[in-house]
Amino acid sequence: MEFLIAFGTDDGEHLNNDHVGMAKYFYVYEFADGKDKLIEQRRNTSFTGDETAKHGDPEKARATSSVLQNVARSSAPISPGCSRNSSAYW
Questions:
Q1: Residue 51 lies in a domain
Q2: Looking at the domain assignment, is residue 80 inside a domain?
Q3: How far is residue 39's CA from residue 34's CA, in Å, rounded to a whole number?
Q4: How many domains does the chain contain in total?
Q5: What's the longest Cα–Cα distance across the chain?
Q6: Which terminus, N or C, of the chain has the lesser number of Cβ atoms within 10 Å?
Q7: Model confidence over 72-90: pLDDT tens digits?
């Protein structure tokens, strides 16, 4: 079984401690057969709205989810206002 996990980062070295949509980049790793492999670096550029929008804003959630298409999970926290089962995510 294989799956993809995105790790949010602002500098490429440390995990982002903020909400998932606030990361500047996502490093996407593939996990399969007990091994991991960096397969892609994605820039979080989809959100073009008001940067002061609150965490959990549906537009920000949709923008982030478009960057994270085909990724099973993210390592960064998701705003309590956004359900993991919401159509805005995954």
A1: yes
A2: no
A3: 16
A4: 1
A5: 42
A6: N
A7: 766 654 444 444 433 333 3
> Is the overall model pTM greater than 0.85, yes or no?
no
Token pair 């085909």 in the structure block, residue: 70
Residue 22, both tokens: 């606030």
**The residue to which tokens 């705003």 are assigned:** 79
- Single-letter residue type at 28: V
Give the DSSP H or E segment for 60.
helix 58-67
Residue 55 belongs to what domain range? 2-74
61-78 average pLDDT score? 73
> CA separation (Å) from 7 to 43, 49, 85?
12, 23, 19
- 13: which 2 tokens? 């070295």
Residue 18: predicted pLDDT: 76
Q: Classify residue 33 by its DSSP letter.
A: T
Is residue 1 within 8 A of residue 32, CB to CB? The reply is: yes
CA–CA dist 58, 86 (Å, integer): 10
